[in-house]
Specification:
It contains 2 helices and 9 strands; from the N terminus they run ααβββββββββ. It is an alpha+beta fold.
Length: 192
């Protein structure tokens, strides 16, 4: 029989090949569970903030779409808070059900329609249903619709204000502010 030239190395190899003891495994699982419990609230907040950020970006893109379409078409284009996929909300404030961007031709001859509302025959450019993962999307009292003229400027009498996006698990709101020029901006504080 041939003896190993390195007897300690052979013993070490034998000890390492045995694996973990049950106690070592239990301690590792317990430490992992504690670290997971500590990280979970931060992860949930991160996911919620990411959802709100995506939602805000989509809303700003829709406002910019309405503005660019008004210039491209040479006529009024409106974005309004949706009550349903084809009806703008009559009351001010709540945008949680989504929005509608449409070519706002105003009232047709013989049609009692009004500017800023989706009337029969007006083309829907984009429609967005209810926001997923966002608890509320609420505008200030004057924020029901935004109408852009062919010049890309806001129609007189339409919204200048704020729409607040609130995640479902925290109160860290994001605000979309629309100024007199019609440009939207995103802020973490209510608009002034």
């Amino acid at each position: 029989m041939c003896k190993s030239a390195f007897p300690r190395l052979a013993q070490l190899r034998h000890r390492l090949s045995r694996g973990f003891t049950l106690i070592e495994l239990m301690v590792t699982v317990a430490v992992l569970a504690i670290l997971s419990a500590l990280a979970m609230p931060s992860m949930i907040r991160l996911i919620d903030n990411s959802r709100v950020s995506g939602t805000v970006s989509e809303y700003v893109a829709a406002i910019n779409l309405a503005r660019s379409e008004a210039v491209r078409r040479g006529s009024r284009v409106t974005i309004c808070a949706a009550q349903s996929p084809t009806v703008c909300k009559a009351g001010a404030g709540d945008w949680t059900a989504g929005y509608i961007v449409f070519a706002d031709d105003g009232p047709a001859p013989g049609d009692p329609g009004t500017p800023g509302t989706l009337d029969a025959g007006e083309e829907v450019i984009k429609q967005r249903g209810e926001w997923a993962g966002v608890a509320t999307v609420v505008g200030s009292a004057t924020v029901r619709r935004v109408s852009y003229l062919a010049s890309g400027r806001l129609e007189v009498g339409t919204m200048i204000g704020t729409v607040a996006f609130t995640p479902s698990t925290s109160q860290e709101q994001r605000y979309v502010c629309i100024d007199r020029s019609g440009r939207p901006r995103v802020d973490e504080m209510p608009c002034v």
